[in-house]
Design brief:
single chain, alpha/beta, Rossmann fold, 8-stranded mixed beta sheet, 21% strand
């Protein structure tokens, strides 16, 4: 992947204390336009990143994952399709504030993240991570969540309610009665597997106001 011009791999140790050289310059230095920047967190094989870039070409897309073997497939496909509005970033989501400047990102997709059943603060929709996103997401920027996990979905709904954020769209079974639109029907590798096992897919869309610190709901352990 180091030969791919659209794949970026920050040094894991350096980014702990220093901002990445692309911070604040993604549109100017890579995409070379002023279109909105959209992130896909935990992008896996990059299906959503690539398909969003094809279906909505008026935006710039960056797929983010820590696993290089996963990213390679999407990066290869974007290169073969000559998509100029796609990049991939290999890093941990904890460090995204060192990679993107305030207001540099307009929209975030969180597609089938690890539900972290025993570590709620590590969930990508926890108050901790949502607060992190406000450091580079434009005030009022949009976040999308697709998940097969009822635990994660309900936790996210509770987190939003606790912080006074009302979802714009909340769907418990995306492929139930009726059909999702062209964008929501994009399927990741993992999503196809969940559907073959008859697991319902849930979807949330909401906006994050700027300048806030979000609290996490209290997780009570079941009584023994």
């Amino acid at each position: 992947m180091r030969t791919f011009p659209h794949v970026f791999e920050p040094d894991g140790r350096d980014i702990l204390i220093h901002d990445y050289f692309m911070k604040g310059g993604w549109n100017r230095d890579f995409f070379r336009n002023d279109r909105p920047v959209v992130l896909e967190l935990g992008c896996g094989k990059g299906e959503y990143t690539v398909q969003l870039a094809r279906k909505i070409p008026g935006r710039n897309y960056i797929g983010i994952d820590i696993k290089g073997a996963r990213i390679w497939k999407g990066a290869r496909e974007a290169l073969d399709l000559q998509l100029a509005n796609v990049a991939f970033l290999r890093t941990r989501c904890e460090f995204l504030h060192r990679v993107f400047a305030p207001g540099e990102v307009e929209e975030i997709w969180v597609t089938f993240p690890d539900p972290q059943p025993h570590k709620p603060r590590k969930r990508l929709t926890s108050g901790r991570f949502l607060t992190l996103y406000t450091r580079f997401l434009k005030p009022g920027g949009t976040i999308h969540l697709k998940t097969d996990s009822r635990i994660l979905f309900q936790y996210t709904v509770e987190t939003l309610s606790l912080n006074g954020i009302r979802p714009e769209i909340m769907v418990h079974d995306l492929y139930g009665p009726g059909q999702p639109d062209d964008i929501l029907s994009i399927k990741t590798y993992y999503e196809a597997g969940f559907l073959s096992d008859a697991k319902p897919i849930s979807y949330l869309r909401f906006r994050l106001p700027g300048g806030i610190i979000l609290a996490d709901p209290v997780i009570r352990k079941p009584a023994l």
